[in-house]
Write a structure and sequence with these properties.
Elements: H1 7-15, E1 23-26, E2 45-48, E3 52-55, E4 86-87, H2 90-98, E5 104-107, E6 111-113, E7 118-119, H3 137-141, E8 144-148, E9 160-161, E10 176-178, E11 182-187, E12 190-196, H4 202-206, E13 213-221
Parallel strand pairs: 1-2, 1-5, 5-8, 6-9, 8-10, 12-13
Antiparallel strand pairs: 2-3, 3-4, 6-7, 10-11, 11-12
């Protein structure tokens, strides 16, 4: 079996998408670790939905003994404090989200369609299991939506599909996907393969992707 990128590398590649001065919401899943991979010459302000703005990197296992148990991101991992960090209630946090005040959100996904539809809250096609929670607010209110996920399920079922079969979180909202195999941009003309993982060919990635991929003019191997 060919080697895929691990979740840490996916988070590193996601972090490259952030621009200096961006205010970024990091949700649950792989993308939440992107806070640990910001170069010192770039300022990125991280937001977590439970009411924290301006936190730092994710603490390692060896540092958790010194962590403030009240200082975690939405995924439950301990984070480092930073000068200027602030706290607020849950309602104010979602005012920031719904009001369009954040630049980027990074979310996980169960399925993404070729139109950029996002399904990330229930594995039940009828939507009877699970609760959508605040997941619907992020892609509606935040300017750019990045999905960080594994390209297929553990049993190799396709997650990038022509049409989502799982309940939607939000239609036509995803701008970019960073997976363990590729970087794919969602455009009006279709899905554009921009980067591929080392050791993988565009043809191999296409075989694990339902919609037809458009090869970018500047298609290249993924860089970190």
């Amino acid at each position: 079996m060919k080697t895929r990128l691990d979740t840490e590398v996916i988070a590193m590649r996601v972090a490259k998408e952030f621009q200096d001065g961006d205010c970024v919401n990091l949700g649950f899943g792989i993308g939440a670790d992107a806070a640990s991979y910001i170069p010192p010459d770039k300022t990125v302000i991280f937001h977590s939905e439970q009411g924290i703005l301006g936190y730092g990197r994710i603490l390692t296992e060896g540092e958790e003994a010194l962590a403030d148990f009240n200082l975690t991101h939405a995924g439950g991992k301990f984070v480092a404090p930073q000068p200027g960090m602030c706290f607020f209630n849950h309602a104010d946090s979602f005012v920031m989200v719904r009001g369009g005040h954040l630049d980027v959100t990074v979310l996980g996904a169960l399925q993404v369609s070729e139109q950029g539809d996002l399904a990330n809250w229930s594995l039940d096609p009828a939507g009877r299991l699970g609760n959508i929670g605040g997941a619907m607010d992020m892609p509606v209110g935040i300017k750019k939506v990045i999905v960080a996920m594994e390209h297929t399920t553990r049993d190799n079922r396709i997650k990038i599909v022509k049409k989502c079969t799982l309940p939607l979180t939000c239609p036509r909202c995803v701008d970019l996907m960073v997976t363990d195999l590729a970087v794919i941009e969602v455009t009006a003309g279709g899905l554009v393969l921009k980067e591929f993982a080392p050791g993988w060919s565009p043809e191999e990635i296409q075989a694990l992707t339902e919609p037809t991929l458009i090869l970018a003019d500047d298609l290249k191997e993924m860089e970190l």
